[in-house]
Amino acid sequence: MLLKPIQLYFYWRRKCQLPMLLILLATLPTLAGPTVPGAEVYVSSQKGKGGFTLAAGGKTAALYASNSDWPGVLRAAKDLQADINRVTKLTPTFATDKAPAGKEVVLIGTLGKSPLIDGLVKAKKLDVSGVAGKWETFLLQVVEQPMPGVDRALVIAGSDKRGTIFGIYDLSAQIGVSPWYWWADVPTPPQQALYVAPGRHTQGEPKVKYRGIFLNDEAPALSGWAKEKFGGINSKMYVHVFELILRLKGNYLWPAMWGNAFNDDDKQSPVLADEYGIVMGTSHHEPMVRSQQEWKRFGSGPWNYQTNEKTLQDFWRQGIRNMGTKESIVTVGMRGDGDEPMSEGSNITLLEKIVADQRKIIAEETGKPAEQTPQMWALYKEVQDYYDKGMRVPDDVTLLLCDDNWGNIRKLPKLGDKPRKGGYGIYYHYDYVGGPRNYKWLNTNPIPRIWEQMHLAHEYGANQIWIVNVGDLKPMEFPISFFLDYAWNPDKIGANQIDDYTRQWATQQFGAKHAAAIADILAKYAKYNSRRKPELLNEKTYSLTNYREFETVVGDYNKLLVEAEQLNEKMPPSTVTLISSWCYTP
């Protein structure tokens, strides 16, 4: 149901949290391709000169990988197998335990982990000079006569685990499978044939090293839905979150923490995160890989380092033990319990001691120097004041700079400062619960503003970590996509290409026919919502007497509603669906 504008203003209960247009999903008529303007399109339904036949004539190329490769790579390869079926209704064979054979095959693997790929490099069949030694870099290339018994191969090679995974999912997006196929029920356009253009296809190395989302303020919407669908916010739900992040070429997650404890609620969650290839972290007030809920469950005494030092150290030590060798970024420092400032008696000397003691624990429990374990210190709210007054942490710790909770970055590195080994990052907000007011109901984040703020971060070199608070995920499909696409390479999306990005994202989700109209509605929807957060609206927000302000605002919303309903009527009834199954309810 589309809400009337006045309902949108004052509808406080969190019902279906989808953007107005995202309830409309039409079957896509053509290959949607990538969302970044100007990105290479290398898959077609028509065969060009030298094209590799991925699927045609009722047959598909077989998929091969080495069983010695990363489990996450083999899992993603099975996703590709399923994605090809989504598009063609044909299921390619997938093998890891026998030699490739066939006229045309797909070879998937990671450098140093896949004898298949390493053999091609050794035989000088595959040039990986722009891939080897890079971070999360992939290459797709058609190789002639790669090995005995194979005429041609489409090679998907990665510099590391996630490099290969990103290469796999890049191909999935190119054949028409949206990263949101599961979370938003985006239908996949059927194709009779799929061909990959010859040449080398890559997106290079990401400009931001760690790129991710923070599930937060997740009750009652996400938590209620997850309980109904999966029995709770557990590994059965998280595998879908992990896959979404990877399909969007992200790699980092702060898990849900309102009444939830990622590492304790379901012991499989951290195991599967590592297997999938997700780097785990904890929020700005949950140090040493332990959640606030874990302290409530297992801690004793006050959350106060001055009076309860030994208990806190033991609690944190267990967090590093639980982490083990799983890929993580350890949050250091300390805030008050419940994400509050520490007591007035806290001082810089004490906080520096806390960080030093935490790093000693990290070194002791990992058996290696602390600087070899990635760490970050969030300069959130009053913590930035400590930094401005002189508090410092070791050079290898990433300084996570923050916005003001409302999308305005508070601090950036000084140009000309000596580079830090740990670099700088940004913690950004699409959703916020806290003083003086909350906003968490729907998407109020126009991407021109996100572009402007994150462009500043990129220009000032804050590119080690980008993490965005997305609330309970569902209202934020569009800005999440933009955040992670932009983080991969901010230089690829200029200020004058934001409209193009919006249109291409709409094409990926809804098809090309109505993409321009949908993009216009999506952009205006976020723009109008951001004029004043809906939770902050009251009878005094817009003037009834000056400049026809109230009438103008209501008129904007009514016009948007009419456009959305008209577009709804244009969608074929057989291809329009209300995503009620994904509509979060308390």
Strand content: 5-15%
The side-by-side strand order for the widest beta sheet comes to 13-12-11-18-17-16-15-14
Individual helix count = 17
Instruction: Sum up the overall morphology in one term.
Output: globular
Radius of gyration: 25 Å
Helicity, as a percent range: 25-40%
Query: Averaging pLDDT over every residue, what do you get?
Result: 91
Q: Tell me about the biggest sheet?
A: 8 strands, parallel
Kindly state the number of beta strands. Answer: 18
Report how far apart the termini are.
17 Å
Which secondary-structure class do the elements indicate? alpha/beta
**Unreliable runs:** 1-29, 574-586
Task: Explain this structure.
The protein is α/β, with parallel strands linked by helices. It contains 17 helices and 18 strands. The chain has helices at 5-10, 71-88, 115-122, 161-174, 221-230, 235-247, 262-265, 268-276, 292-298, 309-323, 348-366, 382-388, 447-459, 477-488, 498-510, 515-531, 549-570, and strands spanning 43-44, 52-56, 59-60, 62-65, 94-95, 102-110, 138-147, 150-158, 194-196, 200-201, 210-214, 252-254, 279-280, 330-331, 375-378, 398-402, 424-429, 465-469. The strands form three sheets. It has an eight-stranded parallel sheet, with helices on one face. Strands 5-4-6-8-7-10 form a six-stranded mixed sheet, with helices on both faces. A four-stranded antiparallel sheet has the order 1-9-2-3, with no helix packed on it. The longest helix is centred in the last third of the chain and has 22 residues, at 549-570. The radius of gyration is 25 Å and the shape is globular. The chain starts with a helix and ends in a 16-residue tail after the last helix. Mean pLDDT is 91; it is low at 1-29 and 574-586.
